[in-house]
Design goal:
By secondary structure, this protein is mainly alpha-helical. It has helices spanning 3-14, 24-40, 45-49, 71-83, 109-137, 144-173, 180-199, 224-235, 239-242; strands spanning 59-65, 87-95, 98-107. A 3-stranded antiparallel beta sheet has the order 1-3-2. Strand 2 (87-95) and strand 3 form a beta hairpin. It starts with a helix and ends in an 11-residue tail after the last helix.
Amino acid sequence: MEKNDVIERVRKILAKTENAGCTQAEAELAFQTASRIMAEHNLDMAEVEQKDEGSVSWVEEDAFETGRYTLEDNLAYGIVHRHFFVEAFFSFKWVNGKARKVLRFFGQPHNVETAKWAFNALLDAFDRLFREYRKTSGCPATDRRLFISGVANGFSEKMNDERRAMATERDLLQGKVSGSTALAVLDIAKQTNVAFQEAHKSFFKKDGSTKGRASSFAAVTGSRSSFEAGQAAGRNLNLNRAIGGSQQRKLEG
């Protein structure tokens, strides 16, 4: 198949989302199928998302009902923001007469859908990996935040390494100037940020900085070995395997 035909096929598969009327299982299978096809044809999401000028669409959707925004939530968002091209903001929804705080993702439709999966999958992985580590190491519960910080650090490093390798390989295979693919990826992130600022002007000051107070968290303490164990677990984490039935588990009800 021609490259453009493959990209169009992937776009059609990724359009099979829960918002489009598919079941959760169907949407997850579509995502996994699209990921396999992209890997077979050496494509990444940046290429899939590249469209003719003027045809890019933007959406924003509830990703996570947060209550108190934790360090773990912030670490997961930092990863999906960087690697899945989404911006985020807090909103509120009313359920049974009570206001609930919700984290909403903004971006191109496929990126938002992927980021929602990844965000919840990371939170599941943080919990699971720490339970496993504590069971084998006997570490105290107070090491949890340090271990999870290590997981986030290791997983982000892994994704950075994979992206650099992918970009270098694609530039060589397609005869592009070295760095061309990396610049295309950065352009997707810049487009998303510009569109987000345009859609939510009230969130920003004239200098482009955000209004309000940034989230702050207590200092992370614990054993250095827990952080290093988390790093190793993060570098071995396969996110696709973590995507499962708990998708958006904290948005239910």
